[in-house]
């Protein structure tokens, strides 16, 4: 079955520790995205990547880092510099299109809690 | 400024009632796309519909219908005869030129359908 997997589903971290969230897709999509969701605030874009070895900052990139070494994988590292990391993190992917109109597909999300 | 506004934070209805979720967008481009997604309690966003700026026809899919009006920059979503399974958070999103691969999401509307 094609889709997006995120692991782990729940993640607990001590304050001051870095943590990496996994996102893998087997849809052969070019573009991948990381969003953060806080209660009542909708989805905010952290980083996105349209091609391997390249990525762009979104609206709230501070305190986060990403890599895109393989087309299928787009891991997100939440660093100790992120002041309020407790949130629900969603990964998405999409077929690139210059003319637009393609939808993003989403993974099941990772809920990160900082203790 | 918000590109996509969903002014209704939370709506509660009783089963079988009709309900309309509002979405107002802002863009200067003549070419753009609008999307609706459903986020059930499990967390994964599910794509419902896309609309391009050149197609103002309303769309109906079963109990779901969408009303796109460029004159008021709105793309509203109506559920007819709501059911408990419709309970979810619904997001409206916009993609616009030149980067159609970047989406702007509204803050979402939480719909509670009570039996």
Keywords summarizing the entry:
heterodimer; A: 115 residues; mainly beta; seven-stranded mixed sheet; four-stranded antiparallel sheet; 11 strands; globular; B: 115 residues; six-stranded mixed sheet; 12 strands
Uncertain parts of chain B: none
What is the structural class of chain B? mainly beta
The proportion of strand residues of chain B reads over 45%
Assembly status: heterodimer
| Main interface: chain pair and counts | A-B, 29 and 26 residues
**Individual helix count of chain A:** 0
Uncertain residue segments of chain A = none
Portion of residues in helices of chain B?
under 10%
Helix-strand pattern of chain A: EEEEEEEEEEE
Query: What count of helical segments of chain B does DSSP give?
Result: 0
Mean pLDDT of chain B: 94
SS elements, strand count of chain A: 11
Give an overview of the whole structure:
The complex is a heterodimer of chains A (115) and B (115). Chain A is mostly beta strands and 115 residues long. Chain A has strands at 4-7, 10-13, 19-25, 31-37, 43-51, 54-57, 64-66, 76-78, 87-94, 105-106, 110-114. In chain A, strands 2, 4, 5, 6, 9, 10 and 11 form a 7-stranded mixed beta sheet that branches. Chain A has a 4-stranded antiparallel beta sheet with strand order 1-3-8-7, with no helix packed on it. In chain A, a hairpin with a 5-residue loop joins strand 4 and strand 5. The mean pLDDT of chain A is 93. With 115 residues, chain B is mostly beta strands. Helix content of chain B is 0%, strand content 51%. In chain B, a hairpin with a 4-residue loop joins strand 8 and strand 9 (74-79). Chain B is globular and about 45 Å long. The N and C termini of chain B lie far apart (38 Å). Classes of the chains: A mainly beta (115), B mainly beta (115). Chains A and B meet through strand 4, strand 5, strand 9 and strand 10 of A and strand 5 and strand 6 of B.
């Amino acid at each position: 079955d094609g889709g997006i997997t995120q692991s782990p589903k729940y993640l607990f971290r001590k304050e001051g520790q870095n943590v990496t969230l996994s996102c893998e897709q087997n849809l052969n999509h070019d573009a991948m995205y990381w969003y953060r969701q806080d209660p009542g605030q909708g989805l905010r874009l952290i980083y996105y990547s349209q091609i391997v070895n390249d990525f762009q900052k979104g609206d709230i990139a501070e305190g986060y880092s990403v890599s895109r070494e393989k087309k299928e994988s787009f891991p997100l590292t939440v660093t100790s510099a992120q002041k309020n990391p407790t949130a629900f993190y969603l990964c998405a992917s999409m077929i690139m299109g210059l003319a637009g109109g393609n939808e993003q597909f989403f993974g099941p999300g990772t809920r990160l809690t900082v203790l | 400024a918000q590109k996509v506004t969903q002014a209704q934070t939370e709506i509660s209805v009783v089963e079988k009632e009709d309900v309309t979720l509002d979405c107002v967008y802002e863009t200067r481009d003549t070419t753009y796309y609008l999307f609706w997604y459903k986020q059930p309690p499990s967390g994964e966003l599910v794509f419902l519909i896309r609309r391009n700026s050149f197609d103002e026809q309303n769309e109906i899919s079963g109990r779901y219908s969408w009303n796109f009006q460029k004159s008021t920059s709105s793309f509203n979503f109506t559920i007819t005869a709501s059911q408990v399974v419709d309970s979810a958070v619904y997001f409206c999103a916009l993609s616009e030129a030149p980067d159609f691969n970047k989406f702007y999401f509204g803050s979402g509307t939480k719909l509670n359908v009570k039996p």
